[in-house]
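Regression test attached.
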Amino acid sequence: QTVVTQEPSLTVSPGGTVTLTCASSTGAVTSGYYPNWFQQKPGQAPRSLLYSTKNRHSWTPARFSGSLLGGKAALTLSGVQPEDEADYYCLLYYSEAHLWVFGGGTKLTVL
Amino acid sequence: EVHLVESGGGLVQPGESLRLSCAASGFTFSNYWMHWVRQAPGKGLEWVANIKPDGSDEYYVDSMKGRFTISRDNADNSLFLQMNSLRVEDTAMYFCARGTMGSPGSDYWGQGTLVTVSS
């Protein structure tokens, strides 16, 4: 069974920078997994932030950036705002199996 | 403006069936992949299934193959999820989501419909 792993929780200070990562049990994450990142606040539906590793949607603030880092997909928040406190999920696409798998999510606390 | 509105959730007993719907508006529905994603109470997101723009192919997470069926009506801008033989562990908020044009992923999401399976 394919497992996608994220840090369960991270804490960052307002104005700081934090990197969340997303690893695959099958090996290194590459652009061919088309990593997506989503933000979810309590009681709300998820909101898409990034697709295909690093592409922002029109509504995604520039302080959110995506990359590949050490065999993982990464989401970096620069100049963190209090409203960035949320759960963040990555999503990887396993093309051979036509399978989408979400990571377990990272709870980001801004403190 | 893109809108996705799910409906059809409710309380059912184990073994029963339920059909979820997602009404789409604000975009050319027939041009997009569509997804169902679920979230059990207090848990993370789980991709359920997706379907091609023309409805010719559909894909499922292994644990739901054979019990769940995704379908669409492009004439009515609607997405469906037929769920049979429901189990207590299927209790979750079910979201529909639009695929991202030109790239695997999803962009717009609905607010979800809650399915509770309990005796």
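Expected vs. actual: identical. Chain B touches chain A at residues 35, 37, 44-47, 50, 59, 61, 95, 100, 103-112 (CB under 8 Å).
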